[in-house]
């Protein structure tokens, strides 16, 4: 069963970010990341957002779509996909971690973790099922060689 398109991974990330901001506002924990170290969050946000962009370019070069609800015509196993089967999701989680560092409060650190747990329970199993059905032994071999996360 496919997760609903309306809850695509970037939307899930934004929803978790919103939940984190609500908790931040409601709980008002003290800052745990000292100034000026919180500015390192910008590097995490920038680096994290660049990973999905690089990955989308890799998908386009392979003639396939990065949309997880579409059946891909090609298996992408090059570039960042040599190190992790989910670089886009890890990039998004890194950007969310960067937002947590920028905001300096501990409740925001739960956001990237919640994001990855949500994807691990929804989109990742769906995508792996589609890829296994579509590419068979080639995907099974790729899955044996490359970790799901890191």
Shape: elongated
Say how many strands there are: 0
Whole-angstrom Rg: 17 Å
Poorly predicted regions are: none
How much is the average pLDDT?
94
Largest sheet entry:
none
**Percent helix range:** 55-70%
Helix count, per DSSP? 6
Strand portion: under 5%
Determine the N-to-C terminus distance: 26 Å
Structural class comes to mainly alpha
Protein traits:
150 residues, mainly alpha, 6 helices, elongated
Task: Characterise this structure.
Helices cover 61% and strands 0% of the residues. Helix 3 (87-103) runs antiparallel to helix 4. The chain is elongated. It is built from 6 helices and no strands. The mean pLDDT is 94. It is mainly α.
């Amino acid at each position: 069963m496919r997760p609903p398109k309306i809850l695509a991974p970037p939307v899930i990330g934004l929803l978790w970010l919103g939940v984190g901001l609500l908790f931040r506002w409601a709980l008002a924990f003290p800052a745990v990341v000292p100034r000026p170290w919180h500015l390192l969050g910008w590097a995490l946000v920038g680096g994290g957002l660049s990973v999905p962009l690089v990955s989308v370019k890799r998908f386009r070069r392979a003639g396939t779509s990065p949309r997880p609800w579409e059946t891909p015509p090609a298996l992408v196993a090059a570039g960042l996909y040599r190190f992790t089967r989910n670089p886009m999701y890890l990039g998004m989680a890194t950007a969310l971690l960067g937002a947590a560092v920028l905001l300096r409060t501990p409740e925001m650190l739960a956001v990237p973790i919640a994001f990855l747990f949500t994807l691990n329970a929804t989109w990742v199993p769906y995508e792996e099922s589609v890829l296994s059905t579509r590419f068979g032994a080639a995907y099974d071999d790729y899955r044996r060689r490359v970790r799901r996360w890191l």
